[in-house]
Amino acid sequence: ANKRLVYEEVKKSIERDRSLVRISELSRNGLMEITRKRVRPSVTFMITEPCPCCHATGRVEALETSFSKIEQQICRILATMDRNGEPQNPKSWPKFILRVDHDMCEYLTSGKKTKLGILSSSLKVWILLKVARGFTRGSFEIKPYTDDKVDKNQQQQGAISKASTKRIASIYTLLSEKIKG
After folding, report:
1. Does the residue 107 lie in any domain?
2. Do the Cβ atoms of 53 and 137 come closer than 8 Å?
3. Is residue 57 part of a domain?
4. Which of 16, 45, 97, 169 is most buried, by CB atoms within 10 Å?
5. Residue 63 neighbours by CB under 8 Å, 6+ apart
6. Is 20 exposed, middle or buried (0-12, 13-18, 19+ CB in 10 A)?
7. Residue 128 — very low, low, confident or very high, per pLDDT cuts 50/70/90?
8. Model-wide pTM > 0.90
9. Whether pLDDT at 150 is above 80
10. What residue numbers bound the domain in which 170 lies?
């Protein structure tokens, strides 16, 4: 009898609530289950905004995935280009400027056999790597490089660390020697 009274009192007090509320009767152990549908967003949701890097998924693209996309993009550009010269002659290979975020630059240039060197030799292209400030992880830009002077705005936007420049120069030297000999 008391269980029924408790249930009725809780039910009366919930009638004033605007949101959907479900109540179960008291169990043998004296427990009552009450569920309430949330009417408005959580405080955390109201005071935060989506992450610009992961687009609010909580995950970012793996570097390997970004690397594959870079390779595919270069292949697409190569397919549209008129390739003059001999593939055996590295001096005739097409040149590209690749702008990436700092993490991707580290990924491409780390280790003895760098991913950049392997990509360059397998596709028979030269790739000038630039770290682009403000690029989020997974963002990149590939442009064919022309021997004309590069636009001053592009030079200001992208910056290559001195260590990366030396590393890239040594990679190009090694690749040239490997191909010749």
Report:
1. yes
2. yes
3. no
4. 97
5. 103, 104, 107
6. exposed
7. very high
8. no
9. no
10. 63-180
